[in-house]
Amino acid sequence: MKKKDGTSRRQFLKTAAVSGAGLGMAGALPTAAAPAAETAPPTPATKVPRKTLGSTGEKIPILLLGCAQRFDDKYDKILHRSYKAGVDYLDTAHVYADGWSHKTIVPFLEQIGGRKNVWITSKFPAKPGDVPGFEKGLDTCLSELQTDYLDLFFMHALNDPKHLDPEYIKMGEGMRKSKKTRFFGFSCHGDRMVELLNKAAKVGGIDAIMFRYSFAQYGDLELNKAIDALKKQGVGLIAMKTQDSVPKDQAEVVQFKSKDFNLAQAKLKAVWADERIDSAVSHMDNTTKLKENVDAALSPIQLSMNEFQQLQRLATATAAYSCHGCSQICEPHVPGETKIADALRFLMYHESYGEQDKARTLFNRMTPAERTIEGVDFTRAAAACPRGIDIASRMRQAVDRLA
Ligand code: SF4
Fold this sequence. Notes:
- By secondary structure, the chain is α/β, with parallel strands linked by helices.
- It contains 17 helices and 10 strands.
- The protein has helices at 9-19, 77-84, 100-111, 131-145, 166-177, 193-203, 221-232, 248-251, 263-272, 287-298, 305-318, 327-330, 340-351, 356-365, 368-371, 379-384, 391-402; strands spanning 50-52, 59-61, 63-66, 89-91, 119-124, 150-155, 181-188, 208-212, 236-240, 279-283.
- Helix 6 (193-203) runs parallel beside helix 7 (221-232) and helix 9 packs across helix 10.
- The longest helix has 15 residues, at 131-145.
- It is globular.
């Protein structure tokens, strides 16, 4: 498919790979050329386009409402405006908003005539080796949402490939058979994400996965191979953390210029341009963000080569401010229990999401040993970090802002 400047995304990616584009993004680039025909918006576009989720046969909107928030239980503008725009897929979890997400979705379900009118995905965390914990977790989600089924149940934020051992796959089959959930899968964004994705492609029994994916990962060879393997197996793929957020002043280092999209919209368009990705979830906690995201989803205009290049320049320029959670690389190089990846994630909530209270709460929930920086030498950890993060300095900022 031709872009508005007459080039195809495949052409751009090929050019970038050959030239290196000065971006340090060696390795395979996505095989995507253009959005699948089924994602083409209706004419005139009034509702967010839909795409089939893996092999489920179900068409879901390409933009999903991230529900890590407490909604207004009388009348919530975000929920209702999303629904009217065709974003009729709620992505929630037992732990979101300290349990308030589930509770405050319930009145909305009544207001729209019942839960059958929306797709509900929920998630539950569990301890390793605890199949009954996940099973109880599904019941807890159903009870809190006051429904007798979910459309999709995720094991939440998996980071241990053991959770894809046969007993868990069997558990998923049982959940589907019981009709408590129509589909089953997991979410992941931690240091073992690629390992998990590869295992999921091998073991089967997983309908869909929500995982970290953004413009900043186009050159990640291993991730791209895993995505290709999952696509081949018909696993539904939902992108999360599409913004690869960095502090605002850093994001402005590359002055993104476009006559069609702002930076946040362009980042979403970049993910949607990858034909392997079925949908992207976005945490939309105000009506401006919702409108911008919906406008981007409705727009038939694709990113130009110049816009892709600007995003890739941004990825390179801000890599040292964007921790990807690969804690197995840096944390073995510090003594004690200091949790670098968690601390930097909470710092991101503070600097980039504007969620100061949440950031402080989560940071202070870590044990003193996990958040200490006193007497810790981060030199070797920083040398190991593939993103070039000045870990000592960023950890100091985390403590100064969040402790
Ligand atoms: S600091 Fe670097 S190595 Fe450590 S988790 Fe973040 S990106 Fe990975």
